[in-house]
Amino acid sequence: MKEIVVISGKGGTGKTSLTASLAFLSGNNAVIADCDVDAADMHLLMSPDFGYREDFYSGQVASIDTDICTSCDLCREKCRFDAIDKVNEKYIVRELDCEGCGYCARICPVEAISMNDQYSGQFFISKSRMDNTLVHARLGIGAENSGKLVAKVKKEARKIAEEENKDFVIADGSPGIGCPVISSLSGADFVVIVTEPTVSGIHDMKRVYELVKKFDIRVSCIINKYDLNPEITSEIMKFIDSESIIHLGNIPYSKVFTEAVTKGITIMENGDKEMAAIVTNSWSKIREYIDD
Q1: 96 Cβ contact list (under 8 Å, min separation 6)
Q2: How many CB atoms lie within 10 A of CB 8?
Q3: How confident is the model over 24-57, as pLDDT tens digits?
Q4: What is the CATH number assigned to the segment(s) 60-119?
């Protein structure tokens, strides 16, 4: 089983649309993992059934028992995150500000403060309309530890792929270079960077490539909307060549992307033969390099 991770240095490059197209092409031979838990949207194109779901808890948050609290003010005074307030003569914890360090609970003279597991979101395992399994999640509003939730998504996707003898795990990573991206890259066999010929596109592509190099993973690149700015496309091509990055292909600008998203389908299903051929050829190259 091989794990392919699709990432981008910035949002809006067409990363998720491409990943969903790869999911369509791989069909029942792959398990799909949506690792963009902060802004999950693979379900919009794959129509999962949300067959299994569970709450996800990560980190802790303080809670004050007002019946025990003696209003000594020590917790509010010592909290370095200013997460404790006094409201109507009672002390409360602002959960969005609490970092879960537990210091207030340690210093409370009457043990009125407890540390409780923090609800961070939901985790799902679904069957999609493409006859494959989608492992996905949704981070809660204002919740942290997205990297841990991504790790859970990837772990479960790998487990299912191994148990069902699937050839691939295809993961849609988050844009950027933060914790969820790092977690997405952990244990991967092959990386696809989706970029675009804009100033921010080439800058962020180079930045995410520097991150990928630290993992020593084979890396490839697809340039989406390549014909919007031939000059920057040329710069990207030179960079790809200089770093020996595998060039999978160039996709022209097309309304097919937005039309497909509006319909809730992939670009493989929207009737554009040229676009479908480019993506199919890219998938063939990915499989060729993975098997090499």
Answers
A1: 142
A2: 28
A3: 999 999 999 999 988 888 999 999 999 999 999 9
A4: 3.30.70.20
